[in-house]
């Protein structure tokens, strides 16, 4: 039996439900807060009062790192989700169930059994604030969600037993989803894999799905990367390709099979915004989302492209930058560069689009041939020039000076004609593969709360 790990805010019923669940499965129940008290010989309120939250979190991390690997139900403290190392330990070879309750119910339960405060706010405000702050991490902790607001502890435990035994997607939805995948241009081995996972007689009902949503998306390296990461972290997931001309259809299929999330690529990054229930601030500002996380019945849109673009530029704060292009990825680049206080000038083939993006993002804009007069520290190519099969370069070699850093967001081929010309001119270069690596790392954290080292992603992509 895989471990069952219960996550959730205080007062959602982890201990009471976990005890009943463990009895039903005939395995032990361990509560991380109780283990911390036993190890330290003090109560949790005493640890908070005498040594503060930081010390408590360190004790919690030690306890979590040594939990048994199987045949057990584990109840966790409400704050374990904020630490990616805890998530790596707790998510490995486990079924993770997020318990949720509405704020009024949590307030009533905590009034009966007070816990040490986490802020100086009145109890109800603290609950609302802390849950909002941890919302991403709670979503990332969930393989399955159970709302305990209006159920008895016995009913909630029965619901978990049922989903462990039968899964959550009924047979007709699984069969319909498989017919849809079978009609899409997937390679034969992937069709067979999906058939086994969705409709096969020996299917594992606890396996869940993620995928890349695009049209086309057969070129995407995300399935290779994510499926290898699932093995590395022992996660019971399968990552596939959702290829269809309509993002609405893809979202419906994803919801029907209770998918955990989607990586969104060309041409859906803008259109997907209308298909999610909530949108992250950065995605809203950029006007595009490349990540959807489904949790507890709702879909959240995020943009990790801008983080992938910004990460290799950490040392370029305040630089003078030229941004070539004014399409979807240029909007993410404009957000990333202005967030680093750069002085950014946008140049684009269609000047009107450069003007629109400049006005939206607080940048300047000029006509394409103004490049030579700007003398930038950094050039970022966000056009599709140089993307296979195109062999062009947005700039000539004689326009590049060795003092410049040239960052090409195009990553097929790995060394584009622009990067080759920049290396010849003696420039520092950053390739589009860096963006892919860092944006995927951020996506993995949104999906599972785990921090993957860059080196692990590089090894897989090599
Ligand atoms: P997009 O929205 O279609 O924008 C394309 C941009 O390229 C527009 O500014 C367009 O100018 C310009 N352009 C296209 N052909 C041109 C040409 N022949 N001459 C001059 N300008 C030209 O595409 P996108 O989503 O922003 O993607 C742009 C590139 O970034 C793609 O190659 C994509 O693969 C790459 N990308 C990389 C990553 C990564 O992880 N490394 C992530 C996302 C995207 P007009 O406005 O004049 O049409």
Structural summary, described in words:
Strand 13, helix 16 (351-361) and strand 14 form a beta-alpha-beta unit. The protein has three domains: 3-166, Rossmann fold (3-Layer(aba) Sandwich); 171-303, Rossmann fold (3-Layer(aba) Sandwich); 307-430, NAD(P)-binding Rossmann-like Domain (Rossmann fold, 3-Layer(aba) Sandwich), CATH 3.40.50. The radius of gyration is 24 Å and the shape is globular. It has 20 helices and 17 strands. The strands form three sheets. The chain has a six-stranded mixed β-sheet with strand order 7-6-8-10-11-9. Helix 7 crosses helix 19 and helix 9 (171-182) packs antiparallel against helix 10 (188-199). The protein has helices at residues 14-25, 32-40, 44-65, 84-91, 103-112, 123-133, 135-141, 153-166, 171-182, 188-199, 222-233, 247-256, 281-286, 305-310, 328-339, 351-361, 371-374, 417-424, 432-448, 454-461; strands at 3-7, 29-31, 73-75, 94-100, 144-147, 208-214, 237-243, 261-264, 278-279, 291-295, 298-302, 320-324, 343-347, 364-366, 378-381, 405-408, 428-430. The two termini are 35 Å apart. The chain has 462 residues and is an alpha/beta fold. The model has no long low-confidence stretch (mean pLDDT 96). The structure holds NADP nicotinamide-adenine-dinucleotide phosphate (NAP). The site of NADP nicotinamide-adenine-dinucleotide phosphate has 25 residues, from helix 14, helix 15 and helix 19. NADP nicotinamide-adenine-dinucleotide phosphate (NAP) is lined by residues 266, 305, 308, 325-330, 348-350, 353, 382-385, 387, 409-411, 432, 435-436, 439.
